Amino acid sequence: MKTKIKILLIIITLFGFSKVKAFTADVEMKLETAKNVGDELEIDIKLINPSEQKLVSIRSWLSYDPTKLEGIEIKTYEDFDLVAPGEKVFDKDNKRVKIGLANSLGGVSVRETVIATVKFKVLASDDIKLDFYDYQISELGHTNANIIEDNLPINVLKESPEGIRITGTGVPVGGEPKSVKKQENIEMLGIPEGLKITTGPNYAELMWDKKDGLGYNIYYSNQSGYYMHMIDAGGLDTYHVTGLNDEETYYFAIKSYDIKGNESPYSDEVAIVINHPETSTAPLNKVIAGSHLTKNGPSMIIFMVGVSGVIGYLLINKNKLLNK
């Protein structure tokens, strides 16, 4: 009998360990220069999976400037041999490289691999930047690495991946270019104004004063003045950011950009505690009215879930009153 109990405990222990391991968000994604000769530029999208989790799908959308780079080819490899519909393309109009892949055998546990090589023709010799687009903690963003657990996809990407900057000499660099011409363009953009934020369960809704002809990038993090995440909001003046942790303080700032990709300085920083409406800087009714109009698809889903939760709460409490 004791032997059977020991075996059972071992099985439970192993099962519990596998469950913990499955949820380890330790996967990294990075960009590396594979080739930079003349007007040819090739960028590898590299995946690092230290605990060798069984990854079933990858999404790796990139933001790029079509006035500086012309998309030529996207090459994918056998580890992720299935292509999502419409997600192996250059979307010049929206300045995106869209890559969505899956493994046909139900997952791959490779420790390190190149998932795609993106080939460009360089059109301008000044500084070039490529950034990952729309990372979210959940699997709903456009940059993720997913496992399947209980028949549901779970994003195990460690954090928002960093982009890459390439100078005219082909040397990757960090920080902002310093050319006089670019500085003049930045000054013409001005500093974005009117940033206001509201919050609810796991989300923040941003609003700002929009200027015609400009796009906006949203920067945020848990550290003041040090922004780990970036979302391109396009020409919108409101955006619904999801996948945030309740009870945590987030710091937001925005930059405007013009058609050439020149960015303004940061706006004033705004801090907010997620799911604490009293820290909001704008009325919540504006969020409800406009949340489904933002370009971030999951915002309407989250809004509907919130409504369902309220209805469920009211029905439960109504039954309690009737049964008294």
Please sum up the structure shown.
This protein has 324 residues and is of the alpha+beta class.
Task: Write up this protein.
There is one protein chain. This protein has 324 residues and is an alpha+beta fold. It has helices spanning 2-22, 180-189, 284-290, 298-322; strands at residues 28-37, 40-48, 57-60, 62-63, 69-76, 82-91, 96-102, 112-122, 128-132, 143-149, 152-155, 164-166, 172-173, 196-200, 203-207, 215-221, 229-232, 238-242, 249-257, 270-273. The strands form four sheets. Strands 3, 4, 6, 7, 9, 10, 11, 12 and 13 form a nine-stranded antiparallel β-sheet that branches. A four-stranded antiparallel β-sheet has the order 1-2-8-5, with no helix packed on it. Strands 17-16-19-20 form a four-stranded antiparallel β-sheet, with no helix packed on it. The longest helix is centred in the last third of the chain and has 25 residues, at 298-322. It is globular and about 50 Å long. The model is unreliable at 2-22, 168-183 and 283-324 (pLDDT under 50).
